[in-house]
Structures are given as C-alpha cells and as structure tokens.
C-alpha cells in the first residue's frame, strides 16, 4: 500500500537549489522564529490537510472492487463488460484455463490503467506547474479527481465506471505536485519533515478511508455503490474549497520557467523508460556511483512491480477465499494501516543513518513468507499473520530504498533524482496489477501468491550487489 506513487521532475524552482534558498533565512535566524519559515510550515500543513482529504476519498473504492466488478458482470447496459468477457473467454478456451476469476482480471486491467495514466500525466502536471505555478495546476487536478467521483456516482454501467477511472488516473498528479511543493518550502533541515508528513497522510488515508467507504456502501447505495462515490465526491469538493482558500503560491513569477517547451522536454525524461533506468538526467555522478544508483533503481522497480500486483489483488484473495464483504475488507485495510503507522512511527523514527540497507533486507525477507501465507492460508489467523508481516515489511521497504537513493548526486540534482525515483515506482505500478491478475486468473490465488512471495527473493539477492 504504499503509495501512489509517481512523480514529476522538479524545475529550477523545484530543485534542491531553490528549496535551500527558500529556507536559508530560517536556518540563519533561528528556524521557527523566522517569518519565512513560519509561512513554509503553514504551507506544509495545508498540503498535509489536502492530501488527507484526497486520500480519504481515493481509498474508498479499494474494499469495493470485487463487489463492483461482480455487479457489472450481472448488470452492464453498455455491453463493454460482455465484450471484454467474450474476448477473454475465447482466449481462456484456447489455453485451457478454467472459467473463473474474470473479475480479478478486469480489476487488474483497471488498476494498471489507472497507474499508467498517473505515470504519464504526473510529469505533465509538474511541467505545467513549473510555468503556470503550483496552485492553479493543483486545483485543476483536484477538479479532475472530483469529476471522476461524480462519474462513478452515476456509473450505472461498466463503461461509465471505466471512464471515471481513466479521468481519475489522469488527474492524480496532485500527489506528485505535493512533493514539489514540499521541496519548494523546505531546506535540507526541513525536507525530511515535509516528506514525513506526506507519509503520515497516506497512513491516515489508508487506515480510515476504506472502512468509512465500506460503511457508506451498506446504506442507501445502488449496486455500484453510489453512496460511497458521493462521499468521495463530497471530500473532493471540500478539498477544492480548502486548497483554494488556504494555499498560497510557493513558486513566484520570477522563479518560473518561461518556456513550456523546456519543461515538457524534461517531463519526457520521466516517461522514457531508458532515461529512467539509467538516471541520465542526474548529472555529476561518477561511473561507480551511477552504477550503484542504477542497481538500486532496478531493485526498487522489481520490488514495486511484484508488490503492487500482489497488493492490488489482495481484496480478491479475501473475497474469493474468505468470503469477505466490503466491511470486512475495510477492517482489513484499517488493520494494515495501523500496523504500517506503528512501524513507520517506531522503527523508522529510530532508523540510524547507514542502517537502511539492513532494514530493507529485513523488509524483503518478511515479504517472502507474508505473501505465501496470504495466498495459502485457509483461516483468518493464518491470513492476519501474513498480513502483519506484509504491513511491517512494506513499511520498511520504500522509505529505506528511497533514503539509500537520496544520498547519491549533488544537492542541485536531488529534486531530479527523486522525480526519477517516483516515476520508476509509478511505472512498476502500471504493470504489476495486470501481470499479477493474469497469474491469479490463470493459476489461482495460492499458486500466484506463492510464486509472488518466492519472487521477492530476486530483489533481495539484487540488493546485496549494491
């Protein structure tokens, strides 16, 4: 769960150079007593509040996916579901796969489509914000998110629901813009605090959002859970009003890019896989340092590719194997969110510099039995034991690997490096759900999760070469 989880390259005003300038006076004048730092701290709180509202709405749909797709299987007036099912059935007969788990396959397709659109559009929103400012572009993304929830509320057929997910994925650049804003208003001393706030917002969203969304699905709701969608829409509209009223622009006119062409050219580097995996935009690295960064990037991509696929299909495992309804799914997500929050607040807070690789190794070693237990367990006890390992391990992985990556490169290229890093994660999430869903559809939950768990040994072995 982690994270959505894409990024945008930071322009001159969003790079470490400019963020350091933004916070230098605070450092020299006693930190919090400086008016500029007080304003920066206020901005961080506004972004934090906006992300909580956003993530409380975003996570509403997570426990509902299995029931949603089963509803559209039975009640789709658009004919899209039936058309896709006919194509899948023909292929299924060709390769001899049993007629089962079609909803998992379609769910994986939607999950990957959402993440792919986020991967493609997040750099674009970042590039536009470098020219036109953070606030107007951020508000446009929030309007897009609200529109996607409005469409979902009206989605009596599968085609409308798919359209809602397409708009939602394209509009999800607000998360990457939040990273850019945090960089705008942070220096070396306060950057970690800003990034930690984003992590806390995700923990709160994933702890509370799914349970509340599932509760809304139980009353006054249509088969496509219109009540849950309207709740998410209300949060999105509140977010628009909150951000418009309280956010003050962090990218002044004299620091913006004058040409959209140059900004878009840099955005292209964040959707070009060859440039991403080679970290070609990060200048000034020695051959040895670049080699280590490339190796670490491959570990990160492979881990998130495996993790995101297994994470996305988790609700289908509990739906099919344990007969979980939406409320039970919501309680499961709340449990995961609480364990992740405790882990990040405890282990990660006491993490010593230089111990990140050791902690990442431990996290990966937990993921192997975690997924095997989740897939193979027939009882809630075994399932929740696996979920506990899963939550602890995943809480360690992304922060540790990101911290390891952030030590590379000059201060002037930190923004660029972290933008590439987030884009690598988004690319992994664009392919993980559909590949794992195909495995689930073909092999069943047990075999799919055992293979997925054992596959976590690959990034573990690769990490040792770093």
Structure commentary:
The protein has 466 residues and is mostly helical. The chain has 20 helices and no strands. The longest helix is centred in the N-terminal third of the chain and has 31 residues, at 102-132. The radius of gyration is 22 Å and the shape is globular.
Number of strands: 0
Question: Strand count, sense and closure of the main sheet?
Answer: none
Are there runs of 5+ residues with pLDDT below 50, and where? Answer: 1-32
**Would you tell me the overall average pLDDT?**
87
If helices are DSSP runs of H or I spanning 4 or more residues, what is the number of helices? 20
Task: Name some characteristics of this structure.
single chain, 466 residues, mainly alpha, 20 helices, 0% strand, globular, disordered N terminus
What's the gist of this structure?
This protein is mostly helical. It is 76% helix and 0% strand.
Layout of secondary structure:
Blueprint: H1 16-28, H2 35-58, H3 65-74, H4 80-95, H5 102-132, H6 134-153, H7 158-170, H8 174-184, H9 191-216, H10 226-246, H11 260-268, H12 273-278, H13 287-312, H14 314-322, H15 326-346, H16 356-376, H17 380-406, H18 414-443, H19 445-455, H20 457-463
């Amino acid at each position: 769960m982690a994270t959505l989880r894409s990024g945008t390259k930071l322009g001159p005003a969003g790079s470490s150079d400019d963020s350091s300038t933004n916070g230098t006076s605070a450092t020299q004048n006693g930190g919090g007593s400086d008016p500029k730092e007080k304003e920066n701290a206020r901005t961080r709180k506004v972004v934090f509040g906006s992300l909580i509202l956003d993530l409380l709405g975003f996570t509403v749909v997570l426990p509902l996916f299995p029931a949603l797709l089963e509803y559209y299987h039975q009640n789709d007036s658009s004919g899209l579901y039936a058309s896709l099912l006919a194509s899948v059935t023909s292929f299924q007969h060709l390769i001899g796969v049993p007629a089962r788990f079609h909803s998992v396959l379609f769910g994986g397709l939607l999950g990957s489509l959402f993440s792919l659109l986020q991967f493609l559009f997040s750099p674009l929103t970042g590039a536009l914000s470098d020219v036109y400012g953070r606030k107007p572009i951020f508000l446009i993304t929030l309007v897009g998110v609200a529109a996607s929830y409005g469409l979902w509320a009206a989605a009596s057929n599968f085609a409308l629901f798919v359209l809602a997910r397409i708009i939602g994925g394209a509009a999800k650049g607000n998360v990457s813009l939040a990273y850019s804003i945090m960089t705008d208003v942070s220096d070396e001393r306060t950057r970690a605090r800003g990034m930690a706030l984003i992590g806390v917002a995700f923990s709160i969203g994933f702890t509370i959002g799914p349970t509340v969304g599932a509760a809304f699905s139980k009353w006054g709701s249509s088969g496509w859970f219109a009540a849950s969608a309207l709740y998410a829409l209300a949060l999105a509209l509140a977010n628009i009003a909150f951000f418009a009223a309280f956010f003050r622009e962090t990218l002044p006119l004299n620091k913006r890019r004058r040409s959209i062409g140059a900004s878009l050219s840099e955005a292209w580097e964040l959707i070009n896989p060859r440039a991403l995996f080679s970290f070609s935009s990060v200048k000034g690295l020695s051959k040895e340092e670049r080699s280590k960064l490339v190796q670490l990037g491959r570990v990160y991509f492979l881990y998130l590719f495996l993790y995101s696929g297994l994470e996305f299909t988790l609700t289908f495992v509990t739906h099919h194997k344990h007969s979980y309804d939406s409320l039970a799914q919501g309680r499961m997500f709340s449990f995961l969110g609480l364990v992740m929050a405790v882990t990040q607040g405890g282990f990660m807070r006491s993490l010593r510099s230089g111990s990140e690789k050791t902690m990442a190794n431990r996290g990966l070693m937990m993921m192997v039995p975690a997924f095997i237990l989740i897939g193979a367990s027939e009882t809630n006890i075994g399932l929740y034991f696996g979920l506990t390992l899963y939550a602890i391990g995943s809480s360690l992985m992304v922060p540790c690997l990101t911290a390891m990556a952030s030590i590379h490169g000059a201060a002037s290229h930190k923004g660029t490096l972290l933008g590439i890093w987030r884009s690598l994660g988004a690319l992994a999430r664009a392919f993980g759900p559909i590949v794992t869903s195909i495995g689930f559809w073909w092999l069943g939950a047990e075999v799919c999760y055992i293979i997925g768990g054992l596959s976590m040994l690959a990034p573990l072995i690769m990490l040792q070469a770093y």
